[in-house]
Automatic annotation (TrEMBL):
Species per Swiss-Prot/TrEMBL record: Brevibacterium epidermidis
Its EC number(s): 6.3.4.15
Protein name (record): BirA family biotin operon repressor/biotin-[acetyl-CoA-carboxylase] ligase
Top-level taxon of origin: Bacteria
Ligase keyword on record: yes
One Pfam family this sequence matches: BPL_LplA_LipB
Keywords: Ligase
Keyword Nucleotide-binding belongs to the record: no
């Protein structure tokens, strides 16, 4: 651990105790004041562990400042130090797991739930963002697969804008919890947010694994994802990885969480632009999971 432990945004021992109070037993967390990329550094630990002691599932690697973060499609992602909740978690699905597309969406549901607890109504954007009801980005999610001889592992990273002020925003269509709630950024509790996200993410992921080859769309978690996804019902333009566009109405998700356009075309990847938003999802009623 970094020598500046007491000044870090997240006290790892406190997080483990609070998580235990909510029924979650976590392996040791790794948190320091700066790193290049939490996804890169956790992935490196996973590769190194493959040759000796495997890294436990749900290991968290977080930082107060990520200076070489990644976005989708090779983009970079950087915000000022101590202004976001930036971390990655290791998931180790069983052999034969194929529901990769649901991973960023259940992560989005976990973030949606946590920011609702913090007083912010948000919405999930397919495939990997959480937005304000006005369509401004609060959180980006990036999942990468590490192919190992023991089976593929998932390194799931998230960056939630927490303490950013208007002058800090990387672009006009972004926001933060501080801006949305109107509170001073120092009042935002990163530990509480992290525990809240984990308390939803881990049970939802376990449900996904338990479904196996069954259609996960029938699950309670998938229903919540659909309920909170602003993309569904919206007129959209999707920039596909091959550089072409498709325009239509997002009408659903298929069994693998691909986006269905006009009830006929399924897309597994692409940048989505909302042309005519659907009615804004409302904050869900809280319920025990």
């Amino acid at each position: 651990m970094n020598s500046q432990h007491n000044s870090l945004l997240v006290d790892v021992d406190s997080v483990r105790r609070t998580a235990a109070d909510r029924g979650l037993t976590l392996p040791p967390l790794i948190w320091d004041d700066t790193c290049t990329s939490t996804n890169d550094e956790l992935a490196q630990l996973v590769r190194e562990g493959a040759a000796g002691s495997p890294v436990p599932e749900f290991t968290v690697r977080g930082t107060d400042f990520q200076n070489a973060g990644h976005g989708r499609l090779g983009r970079t992602w950087t915000v000022p130090a101590r202004r976001s909740l930036t971390w990655s978690i290791l998931l180790t699905p069983p052999a034969g797991f194929s529901q990769w597309g649901w991973i960023p969406l259940i992560a989005g549901e976990a973030v949606h739930s946590a920011v609702a607890e913090a007083g912010v109504t948000a919405a999930i954007k397919w495939p990997n963002d959480v937005l304000t009801v006005e369509g401004k980005k609060l959180c980006g999610i990036l999942a990468r697969v590490e192919p190992l001889s023991s089976g593929p592992k998932i390194v799931l990273g998230m960056g939630l804008n927490t303490r950013l002020e208007p002058a800090d925003l990387p672009r006009e269509d972004a926001s933060s919890l501080a801006i949305e709630t109107g509170v001073d950024g120092s009042e935002i509790d990163h530990e509480a947010l992290l525990v809240s996200i984990l308390s939803t993410l881990i049970p939802c992921y376990r449900e996904l694994v338990e479904y196996g080859d069954e259609d996960f769309r029938d699950s309670r978690t998938a229903q919540r994802v659909r309920d909170h996804m602003v993309t569904l019902g919206s007129r959209v333009r999707v920039e596909k990885p091959d550089g072409t566009d498709i325009i239509g109405t997002a009408t659903g998700l298929d069994s693998g969480a691909d986006l269905i356009i006009d009830d006929r075309v399924s897309l597994s990847a692409g940048d989505v632009h909302h042309l005519r938003p659907a009615a804004s999802p409302t904050a869900p009623e809280r319920s025990d999971r």
